Amino acid sequence: MLFVQLRYQFRVYPTPGQQMELARTFGCARVVFNDGLRARQEAREAGLPYVSDGELSKRVITEAKKTAARAWLGEVSAVVLQQALADLNTAYRNFFASVTGKRKGRKVAPPRFRSRKDNRQSIRFTRNSRFKVLDNGRLRLPKVGDLAVRWSRTLPSDPSSVAIIRDAAGRYFASFVVTVDAHETLPPVDAEVGIDLGLTHFAVLSDGTKVAAPKFLRRAARKLKRLQQDLSRKQKDSNRRKTAVVKVARAHARVADTRRDWQHKLSTQIIRENQAVYVEDLCVVGLGRTRLAKSVHDAGWASFTGMLEYKAARYGRTFGRVDRFFPSTRMCSACGRINEKMPLNVRSWDCPCGAAHDRDVNAARNVRAAGLADLNARGAHVRPALVPAARREAGTHPDAACSTRSVEGISVL
């Protein structure tokens, strides 16, 4: 039997006293992380060996609690402090793997210090901390108390860990990691689809279906502009400026939540209606540097394809990515002839073989054909890989987007 880990996220409502305890815990975890990072940086500058994980834990937690300068570390759960160091160790391992070439993809920068002014603060409790979901629906956390949780669904199994997240809008979330059976397959269907992602139409399917781009950020631009102008008029470090900052963050959180909810519904519908789904492996990072950057980021292609990938793995569907250099737009889906490059304003074209093509529908059909060919050649999923994880549930990310509402099935593999 195959099991996978999923993340279930719910909104929590701590009391003012509990908010103070959480703020204290956020701060202690941040200090331990920074102390560990500083210790390793100083050792490197002095030419000393790399400080091991065990030695670092002993130095910045166990021994630090005995000093007057860090005695207040004992006021919070020790598990939270250990998990902060675990995040630091993971960051170092990712950095070393990227430098040596063992980690594929974009280069990973070395870990950097966390700030109390970061937009997103989070801590993580594991089973060792003995957190518990009570019968009355509250979440009991050590040295914090019983938090009120808005449950939108029941957890399928006992959680192995929970992360408490505070986003830029001042909202609190509890993110549970649970283990579920991966063989929750859907009834098989005969349909297979290729998807061409774009800006005018968010997605064009190989069967001719076109999904209009909602453009959530563009629709909220007027309100965001007004709030941002109001923020710019406030005096720095004033209370009114802090209030205006929260208002801007809430407006952006509403846009992000709406986009994510819409993408979840669309991706679920596509996975349910098709046995195999193929998409083009777009270079979103490169497209984000062009004059279309705002529209590209507003579309959210990467998050949408990630949803398709993990939902396909969970429900027994086939998912494949076609190489980004595959000429899906210029190739005739009828005869296979590859034409010259076409500007973006050319939305339809005729092939010498006599076939008339809609630019996007033709590209989607070619993506589907290339995905099927690669699948048949390999006898397995196109570019099989682990299901990509969403943003790390623990750690402070200053530029991270706001957290979501209750969302089921964000993979943490």
UniProtKB/TrEMBL annotation:
Residues 301-367 form the Cas12f1-like TNB domain. Keywords: DNA recombination, DNA-binding, Metal-binding, Transposition, Zinc. In the C-terminal section; belongs to the transposase 35 family. In the N-terminal section; belongs to the transposase 2 family. The keyword Metal-binding applies. This is Transposase InsQ for insertion sequence element IS609. InterPro entries: Cas12f1-like_TNB (IPR010095), RNA-guided_DNA_endo/Transpos (IPR051399), Transposase (IPR001959), Transposase_put_HTH (IPR021027). The keyword Translocase does not apply. Pfam families: Cas12f1-like_TNB, HTH_OrfB_IS605, OrfB_IS605. Residues 175-287 form the Probable transposase IS891/IS1136/IS1341 domain. Residues 1-47 form the Transposase putative helix-turn-helix domain. It comes from Micromonospora saelicesensis. NCBIfam families: guided_TnpB (NF040570).
